[in-house]
Automatic annotation (TrEMBL):
Transmembrane segments: none annotated. It comes from Furculomyces boomerangus. Keywords: ANK repeat, Repeat. InterPro entries: Ankyrin_rpt (IPR002110), Ankyrin_rpt-contain_sf (IPR036770). The lineage of its organism: Eukaryota, Fungi, Fungi incertae sedis, Zoopagomycota, Kickxellomycotina. ANK repeats lie at residues 518-550, 672-704, 702-734. The keyword Repeat applies. PROSITE patterns: ANK_REP_REGION, ANK_REPEAT. This is Ankyrin repeat protein.
C-alpha cells in the first residue's frame, strides 16, 4: 500500500478519516499522519494559506481537526490567515485558546506611506512602511471571552488588556531593512491601548450591565478594570454604585472596597445588601461601619441574626451580643432566629457556631428534632453529640432515626444513638435484619448484647445469620421457637453445612433439624465441604453416605477430600459413580488429586481413561507438542508427558505416584463431548485448535461452545478458523455475536458479520444485549448496520436495565421517541424495579445535553 499511493494521498486519507483501525492498512503512515507538522503541511497543500480557514476549507471537510489548538497554531505560523468573520475565529476566544490568541496578537501587516524630502532643490519621494495589527482585537473579542468564561478567561482578559505593550520586530517578520520603516525603529508597538470610554461595547457592557448579571472574581477587577477604576465608579448611577459596592464586599476585594469608599460616602453606598454581604463574608469593619453610622440605622435592618449565611464566629458572637442587648431592652425573644442559625451551622459543618447557639438558648428549640435529624443524616457525629448534650432525649421523638442513619452506613452516629438509648427494635427489629444482611459483625454483636428483637417470620434474616455463622443469633432463634418451623430449620441446617459452621450444625440437629432432610441432602453437602466431623455425626444419626447415587462420594473426589472418599468406599461406594460414568475418577484426575486417583485405581477405577484425561489436560494448558505426541501414538513420549503433566504443574521428570499399569493408549479426539477443543479455544492456542480440527474434532461440540468461547475471549484467528470449518454463526440464539458485542470485541463483530451473522436473528437479541452492556463506539457501529426501527425502540428497555447513559443518548440521537410505548412502559411499569433516576430524568427531559451528538464518521 505504501508503494502504490503517494505520501500526500496517504496523509490525506488518514487525516480525513481519523480512524485508528485504518492503521491496519498502513500503520507507519497512520502514525506519521498524527503529527501536527504533517497535518498542517498537508492541509495547506490541499487548500492554500488563504482558504484553509474558509467555510469551504478545513472546517467543512475535517471538522474534527478544527478542535485541535496545536494544529491551528501550526497553520498560523505557516502563514495561514483566518477571517475575523469566520466561526472558528470566535471559537478561539470562547474556548480560551490562549496560545492561539498570543499568535494572533503578534501578527502584523505593513502599511505603505509616502514621504517627500527636498535636497538641493530636488524633491525625492521615499516609500516607508509602518505596521498595523493583522487582527484588530478589541471589545467584541472581550465579550466572547467574558460570556463563555473558559477556565483561563482572567488570564486572557489581562492579555487583551495589555496587548498595547506587545512589541513586534517588523523588520525581521516582513524581511525589510530598518531604514524602510517609518521612524527608523524595527521593534514597534502595533496595538493601541484599549479605550474603555470610547468603545460602546465596553462602555455599555462592562460599566453598567455586568454588575446585574454576572459575578467575576476579585482578580477580574484588579487585573482588568483596575487601571480604569476611577472612571469606572464615577460613571455609575447611585443605584448601580450600591450594587457594585455590595458585590465588591461579596468578592472580598478590599482594594476596590477602599477605593470606592475613598471616592464616595458610606451613606450613599450602604444598603441591606451590602450589610448582608459583610455578614456572610465576616467583614467586621464594614459591619461596624454600618451599625455605628446614625444616618444608616433608620434605613437598615441591623439585626445580624435575621440575616442568612452567617459563617464567622466573630460575626455570630457580635450578633448574639447585640441581640441580647435588644432583648433586655425590649423583652422580645429571638429563639426562632437561634433555631435558623442552628440549621445553618449544621449545613456548614460549623460545630463551634452550633455550640455557641445551643449554649445561649436556654429554651427548647421549636424544631430541634428536624435539626438533629438533619445533623445525623448529614453524618456529622460531632454536631449530633453537642445537640444531645443539650437535648438528651431528642432522638426518642424522631421515628426510625436510627434505622435511617444505619442504612446510610454511618456507624459512628449509629453507635452514638444506641448509647443514648435509641429504640433498637423499631419496625419489628429492622435494624438487626439490616445488620445481618450486611454481615456487620460489630453491629450484630452490639445488638445481641442489648437483647434486640429477632423476627422469626423473616426467613431471610435467619438464613443470613446461619450463613455468616452468628451462633448467638441462631441460638436466639431456636429459643424463640425456630424448631417448630420444620422447613426453615432444615434449610438452616443445609446452610450451616455449606458454610462449614459446625457449632450451628450441632445446635440445629439437637433442636429438631432432620439429618435425612431431602433424601439425605445434608450428608451429600457435608462430603462436598470435606467436614469429616459432620459426616460422621450424620452417619451416626442414620444418614446414608451413598445416598443419591453416591453423589457425596463424587463431590468428595471432585474437591479432593481423601478421608471422606475413603470412608465412602468403605461403605460400598461405586468408583464409577456420577452424573456421567466415571465422573468421580475424571474429576479427581483433572483436579490433580493424586491420593484420590490412586485410591480409585486401587478400588477398580478404569485406568483406560488416563490417556484421554491427559489429552484434556494438555489441551487445557495449550500444550500443542504434547497433544501431537498423543495423537501420533508416540507411546514413550506420551506416557512421560502424561505422568509429568497430569499431576506436576512444574513438569519435572519425577514420577507422579500414579499407578497406571497397562492401559489402552487410544485417544478420543472428542472425549467429553469436545471439551479439549473448548479448552484450547479458551487458552488461545491457534496451532492447537488447528491440530484438533485437522484430526476430526467436532467444531459444533457442546452446542458450538468453541466458537462462543473464542468470540467472548477475543480469539480472532481461532474464531475465523472455526467458522471456516463449519461452526454455527447463530448458535445458542446468536450467542457468538452477543458475546462479541457485550465484550466490545470490534474485530470479532466485523468477522461474524462478514461471514453471514446478522443482528436481526432471534428477534434482535444481540442488539438488546449490546444496548445494555456495550461501549458506545460498539453500539453506534451496530446501529449503522441498518438495524430495524422496532429493535431500536425496544433497546430502550435494555439500556435502562444496564443503566447505560451513553447508549441512551445514542438511541435518542437515532430518533427513539421518549413518548413511545417502550418509554411509557419504563416510566409507568419498571421505575421501582430498575431504579435508575438519571435515566428517568433524561426521559423526562431534565438532564439532556443541549448539544447534539455527532454521527460517527
Amino acid at each position: 500500500m505504501d508503494r502504490l499511493l503517494s505520501y500526500e494521498v496517504l496523509s490525506r486519507i488518514f487525516i480525513e478519516c481519523q480512524r485508528p483501525e485504518l492503521a491496519l492498512i498502513s500503520h507507519a503512515f497512520y502514525q506519521v499522519s498524527q503529527s501536527i507538522t504533517v497535518q498542517a503541511e498537508t492541509l495547506i497543500g490541499i487548500y492554500g494559506k488563504d482558504k484553509i480557514f474558509a467555510e469551504t476549507g478545513m472546517e467543512k471537510s475535517y471538522p474534527k481537526l478544527t478542535t485541535k489548538e496545536n494544529l491551528v497554531i501550526a497553520l498560523l505560523r505557516r502563514g495561514a490567515t483566518i477571517s475575523i468573520y469566520n466561526e472558528l475565529y470566535k471559537k478561539i476566544f470562547e474556548h480560551g485558546w490562549i496560545a492561539v490568541i498570543k499568535e494572533l496578537l503578534h501578527k502584523s501587516k505593513l502599511v505603505e506611506t509616502i514621504q517627500r524630502s527636498e535636497l538641493n532643490q530636488e524633491t525625492r519621494i521615499f516609500k516607508l512602511y509602518s505596521a498595523k495589527p493583522l487582527y484588530d482585537i478589541g471589545a467584541e473579542e472581550y465579550e466572547w471571552v467574558s460570556n463563555s468564561k473558559p477556565k483561563n478567561y482572567i488570564e486572557i482578559l489581562k492579555l487583551l488588556d495589555n496587548a498595547h505593550e506587545i512589541k513586534i520586530d517588523i523588520a525581521k517578520e516582513h524581511k525589510i531593512s530598518p531604514e524602510m520603516i517609518a521612524g527608523g525603529k524595527a521593534k514597534v508597538h502595533i496595538h493601541p491601548k484599549i479605550n474603555y470610554n470610547g468603545e460602546y461595547s465596553f462602555n455599555n457592557r462592562y460599566r453598567y450591565r455586568r454588575f446585574e448579571n454576572d459575578i467575576y472574581p476579585p482578580d477580574f477587577y484588579e487585573g482588568v478594570i483596575n487601571s480604569n477604576l476611577l472612571d469606572f465608579t464615577t460613571r455609575l448611577s447611585p443605584q448601580r454604585l450600591k450594587k457594585a459596592f455590595a458585590l465588591t464586599i461579596q468578592l472580598g476585594n478590599q482594594k476596590m472596597i477602599d477605593f470606592i469608599l475613598s471616592h464616595s460616602n458610606l451613606v450613599q453606598l450602604a444598603s441591606n445588601q451590602s450589610f448582608h454581604e459583610a455578614i456572610k463574608t465576616g467583614n467586621m469593619k464594614i459591619i461596624n461601619d454600618h451599625i455605628r453610622n446614625k444616618d444608616l440605622i433608620q434605613n437598615l435592618n441591623t439585626n445580624i441574626l435575621e440575616y442568612e449565611g452567617i459563617k464567622n464566629i466573630k460575626v455570630l458572637s457580635f450578633g448574639l451580643k447585640t441581640t441580647t442587648q435588644n432583648e433586655n431592652r425590649t423583652g422580645v425573644s429571638t429563639s426562632i432566629s437561634g433555631r435558623c442559625l442552628l440549621k445553618e451551622s449544621i449545613a456548614a459543618d460549623n460545630v463551634e457556631m452550633a455550640r455557641i447557639i445551643l449554649s445561649r438558648d436556654s429554651e427548647s428549640h421549636i424544631c430541634i428534632q428536624a435539626d438533629f435529624r438533619f445533623a445525623c443524616l448529614k453524618g456529622n457525629s460531632k454536631m449530633a453529640a453537642i445537640i444531645l448534650e443539650k437535648h438528651k432525649d431528642v432522638h426518642k421523638t424522631i421515628p426510625n432515626l436510627l434505622i435511617d442513619v444505619y442504612s446510610r452506613g454511618n456507624q459512628s452516629i449509629s453507635d452514638l444513638l444506641i448509647k443514648s438509648g435509641a429504640d433498637i427494635n423499631g419496625e419489628n427489629g429492622k435494624l438487626l435484619k439490616m445488620a445481618i444482611r450486611k454481615n456487620d459483625s460489630v453491629m450484630i454483636g452490639q445488638l445481641a448484647e442489648l437483647g434486640a428483637f429477632l423476627d422469626l417470620s423473616d426467613k431471610k434474616s435467619i438464613f443470613n445469620a446461619t450463613e455468616y455463622g452468628y451462633t448467638n443469633l441462631v441460638e436466639k432463634a431456636v429459643s424463640c421457637g425456630l424448631a417448630s418451623n420444620i422447613e426453615t430449620i432444615n434449610s438452616c441446617l443445609i446452610l450451616s453445612i455449606k458454610n462449614n459452621h459446625y457449632d450451628i450444625f450441632c445446635l440445629l440437629l439437637k433442636n429438631n433439624a432432620d439429618p435425612l432432610y431431602q433424601k439425605n441432602s445434608p450428608i451429600v453437602f457435608a462430603c462436598g465441604v470435606g467436614n469429616m466431623d459432620m459426616v460422621k455425626t450424620l452417619i451416626s444419626m442414620g444418614a446414608n453416605i451413598r445416598a443419591k447415587n453416591d453423589k457425596g462420594f463424587v463431590q468428595a473426589c471432585k474437591s479432593g477430600h481423601y478421608e471422606i472418599a475413603k470412608l465412602a468406599i468403605e461403605h460400598g461406594a461405586d468408583v464409577s459413580a456420577g452424573s456421567y460414568k466415571n465422573e468421580a475418577f475424571t474429576c479427581a484426575y483433572l483436579g490433580r488429586h493424586r491420593k484420590i486417583v490412586n485410591l480409585l485405581v486401587e478400588n477398580g477405577a478404569d485406568k483406560n481413561l488416563i490417556p484421554n484425561l491427559n489429552f484434556l489436560i494438555a489441551c487445557e494448558r495449550g500444550d500443542c507438542t504434547a497433544v501431537k505426541a498423543m495423537l501420533d501414538n508416540d507411546l514413550q513420549n506420551h506416557t512421560l508427558l502424561g505422568e509429568r503433566m497430569d499431576l506436576d504443574e512444574n513438569q519435572t521428570q519425577r514420577h507422579s505416584g500414579i499407578k497406571t499399569g497397562d492401559v489402552d493408549e487410544g485417544i478420543d479426539i472428542n472425549y467429553r463431548n469436545g471439551m479439549g477443543l473448548v479448552w484450547a479455544c479458551l487458552r488461545g492456542n491457534v496451532d492447537l485448535v488447528k491440530l484438533l480440527i485437522e484430526n476430526g474434532c467436532n467444531v459444533k461440540a457442546r452446542k458450538n461452545r468453541p466458537l462462543i468461547t473464542a468470540c467472548r475471549k477475543n480469539r480472532y484467528e481461532i474464531a475465523k478458523l472455526l467458522i471456516e470449518n463449519g461452526a454455527d454463526l447463530a448458535a445458542g440464539k446468536n450467542r457468538p455475536l452477543t458475546a462479541a458485542t457485550t465484550q466490545n470485541h470490534h474485530d470479532i463483530i466485523c468477522l461474524l458479520l462478514e461471514k453471514g451473522a446478522s443482528f436481526r436473528n432471534f428477534k434482535g437479541i444481540s442488539v438488546y444485549w449490546s444496548a445494555k452492556l456495550s461501549l458506545p463506539s460498539i453500539f453506534r457501529d451496530i446501529l449503522e448496520t441498518n438495524v430495524p426501527r422496532s429493535l431500536l425502540d425496544r433497546s430502550l428497555v435494555w439500556v435502562f436495565r444496564g443503566k447505560n447513559t451513553s447508549n441512551l443518548e445514542i438511541l435518542m440521537f437515532y430518533g427513539v421517541s421518549v413518548y413511545g410505548k417502550y418509554a411509557k412502559t419504563i416510566l409507568e411499569g419498571f421505575r421501582s424495579q430498575l431504579n435508575w433516576e438519571i435515566g428517568y430524568d433524561y426521559l423526562l427531559g431534565k438532564n439532556r445535553s443541549s448539544s447534539k451528538m455527532s454521527r460517527p464518521i
